[in-house]
Amino acid sequence: MLATLIIVFREVLEASLVVGIVLAASRGVSGRGLWVAAGCGAGVLGAIIVAGFADEIANAVQGVGQELFNATILGMAVCMLGWHNIWMSRHGRELAAESTRVGKEVRAGTRPLSALALVCGIAVLREGSEIVLFLYGIAVGGSSTNLGMLIGGVFGVAAGGLAGAALYFGLLRIPLRYLFATTSWLILLLAAGMASQAAAFLSAAEVVPPLGNDLWNTSAVLTENSIVGQLAHVLIGYTPRPAGIQIVFYVATLVVIGSLMRVFRADQKLVRSAE
User: Residue 225 is part of which domain span?
Assistant: First the structure.
């Protein structure tokens, strides 16, 4: 549930920010609400279509190389989580600036109202599609029940929407960079945990060597079935009896994605200072 809440909150917040910026920049334009609502609706519909295809693919390979399919889904989720954090480290400010520019151009009459729907629709579709893939990865990893994912999703949507609305009305005092920095590192840990689970599936399918089974056993200290153990499994990929290949995948994911986040964030600072 917690992993679902974090991911959904982050994605909904980002979509809400784009929508809020567009609304703020185009205030006073007659009919803007209908166009923005239409764009958001189209984005949600597109995300639902993506979810439908994901389910169809899963049903098509049911029982045939299931471990490989599960590992592939988890690997795709890890790649998208990493790409998401790296991209936002570099282009977060540019995204906000572009949304503001489109809203102002519509208000000035140099762009049609349909531009509002397009910008909002793309934002909602992008974030909604990422939610679909991420949650499918969580479901494949078996780290949450359907009820837990539903509850986490509902709370994530509500919290993300409220945070976006608060930012729009200027009520949130927490600097946005701190909020995104915190969720970025949480998502990095989630990605590392998913990579570790993917390694376990690949090892079970005999695609990669285990590099040693049960390197240690901390079940006596913290069982995965306990509440704390489940939270640790969701947040940091905790496994009481990991194989060596799981450790390799976990550490490699942290190092690669974390390093790229730092590189692109530093590069963006150099670009801004040069300007």
Answer: 2-274
